Amino acid sequence: VPGLSESIPGLLFADDTAVLASSPSQLQLGLDGVSAWGCTWGMKFGIAKCGVMSVGVMDVDPDVDPDVDPDPERFRWTLGSAPLPVVNEYTYLGTQLTKDLDLSMMAQSRAARAQRALSGMSRFIRSHRIPLRTRVLVLKAVLIPIALYGAELWGMNQARLKPHQHILNS
């Protein structure tokens, strides 16, 4: 990132950023670096869309679990001066992530979006005034990408793909 004085492990895509860290203190250092960069370049952060989620094992005090720690101040992260909520699931670039990276949850979330899209298109699909070829092209261009977005992560499993196939068949 231009203007960032140090390398911060993370993911960047368009206006989305994910800071990655192996410990709570490293996470706060990364957030501080992103915050300083934002101040330098006049950027504002959508705190309402932010969240902190622990995935896997973090290098923390083995006697303290941040999920059940009685002292919530001990593991409080901030971006600028705004506190960030700790979440159990987060949607990043349209893919729902859970603390255990459950691929079935990713697939279920995507199937629900496809079902909503199909419901929204029902009048269009059933209209006999629109040529069948046009309706099929729209389904291929709109519904299939919605149903299969992120399938590279959760696909290759018949049980996870079955709901998507049912939606496409209907």
Structural class: alpha+beta
Strand content: 5-15%
N-to-C span: 45 Å
- Unreliable residue stretches: none
Number of helices: 5
Strand order of the largest sheet: 1-2
Report the helical percentage: 40-55%
Number of strands: 6
**Overall pLDDT level:** 85
Give the overall silhouette. elongated
Order of helices and strands: EEHEEEEHHHH
Oligomeric status: single chain
Radius of gyration: 21 Å
Please outline the major beta sheet.
2 strands, antiparallel
Task: Describe this protein with a few key phrases.
170 residues, alpha+beta, two-stranded antiparallel ribbon, 13% strand
Question: Would you summarize the structure shown here?
Answer:
The chain is 44% helix and 13% strand. By secondary structure, the chain is of the alpha+beta class.
Task: Please provide a written account of the structure.
The protein is of the alpha+beta class and 170 residues long. It has helices at 24-40, 103-126, 132-148, 151-154, 158-169, and strands at residues 10-13, 16-19, 77-79, 82-84, 89-92, 95-98. It starts with 9 loop residues before the first strand and ends with a helix. The model has no long low-confidence stretch (mean pLDDT 85).
List strands and helices in order, with pairings:
Layout: E1 10-13, E2 16-19, H1 24-40, E3 77-79, E4 82-84, E5 89-92, E6 95-98, H2 103-126, H3 132-148, H4 151-154, H5 158-169
Antiparallel strand pairs: 1-2, 3-4, 5-6
